[in-house]
């Protein structure tokens, strides 16, 4: 069954449609569009679509340094200010397409078809782009939503366990951020691997409708939407500290566990809050399997000193304090500022150690 809803935005409302056979319909409706597609997915395009820009989905290609090449390809495709761009791929293709569509000839219209669970359940709405610059991840970006987002459930079928669980962690994060009842409603949809297309659609639509509240309430990331960074500050450090051996979504899952441990070590939670946050930890643990065995065959070694250094350098902190999203009191999320002193450093280290122990990561070498 097809489902659709609107996202209200100051730059114009846009629609989200989730269902099956959406790619086939899109191709009929937009035969002359320029298709910017994840190279891995080239096979889904019929030969009739000749205007195609294929991009390998990696962090190098979503960099400012790679943009001239993509923009040149747009020009060679004959794109003008009335052209329509269709982007098909995960978060990397989305970030590139948002940036290119917003700047090419001062901005052209575009449609996005997300193909990873992270893209479908999270990043596709909100309109943000994040572009790497000279090795610094997501240093620049802007807001430029597509006119339509079409979520074709068929793309779920080729995602592996790590990709699905990573996407589900982003979904769990959004629902937990909205409140404990919303997290329970999410769990009620039995999010797990493998996801069949019906199950996936229910989880995706429910999660996007939850995220809709955040982006309509705080379109430009000033207040409520910042809570969606839950798991990210702790998680990014694990991603970067393992040279991306732990992928983004998985790192967010572990990052949420570490954030809960930080809140516990800082005595921020009431008894109810501890129970609710533990419920989230249990969910992450079950999904990961002991020591991450469900998602990575050979989990990388973690050098805790390097992870702490990456945590320290996160761009979301201020010069005089750390900024992190953690559960407090009854388990609700809050953005807190912590001074950069020894007590806080020790709690951050302890939170990583406890968090990694919690998910069984001690089976692997923890260089400290
Ligand atoms: N702009 C935003 O709001 C936003 C939000 C979150 C994340 N991001 C960015 O998104 C990126 C991560 O997103 P992602 O995980 O979707 O990354 P991605 O686009 O790199 O996709 C991950 C992998 O999945 C493959 N893939 C894509 N669709 C597939 C399919 N249907 N079947 C099998 N394989 C498929 C890709 O080729 C790639 O190897 C990061 O760069 C992150 O910074 C952006
Ligand atoms: Zn994320």
Could you characterize the architecture of this molecule?
The mean pLDDT is 95. By secondary structure, the chain is of the alpha/beta class. The radius of gyration is 20 Å and the shape is globular. β5, α3 (91-103) and β6 (109-114) form a beta-alpha-beta unit. 43% of the residues lie in helices and 18% in strands. It has helices at 22-29, 67-76, 91-103, 117-123, 161-178, 180-187, 197-217, 232-241, 248-265, 271-288, 304-312, 342-358, and strands at 3-7, 14-19, 34-38, 52-55, 84-89, 109-114, 131-133, 136-140, 148-152, 302-303, 321-328, 332-339, 366-367. It has twelve helices and 13 strands. A seven-stranded mixed β-sheet has the order 1-2-9-6-5-3-4.
Helix-strand pattern: EEHEEHEHEHEEEHHHHHHEHEEHE
- How would you sum up the global shape? globular
Which range best describes the helical content: under 10%, 10-25%, 25-40%, 40-55%, 55-70% or over 70%?
40-55%
Fraction in beta strands = 15-25%
How many beta-strand runs? 13
Q: Write out the CATH superfamily name of the largest domain.
A: Dehydroquinate synthase-like - alpha domain
The low-confidence parts are none
Strand order of the largest sheet: 1-2-9-6-5-3-4
Ligand kinds:
nicotinamide-adenine-dinucleotide, zinc ion
Number of helices: 12
- What Rg is obtained from the alpha carbons, in whole angstroms? 20 Å
Assign the structural class, choosing from mainly alpha, mainly beta, alpha/beta, alpha+beta, or little secondary structure: alpha/beta
Termini separation (Å)?
Answer: 51 Å
The CATH class label of the largest domain is Mainly Alpha
What would you say the CATH architecture of the largest domain is? Up-down Bundle
**Structural domain tally:** 2
| Largest beta-sheet details | 7 strands, mixed
On the 0 to 100 scale, the average pLDDT is: 95
Query: Remind me, CATH topology of the largest domain?
Result: Dehydroquinate synthase-like, alpha domain
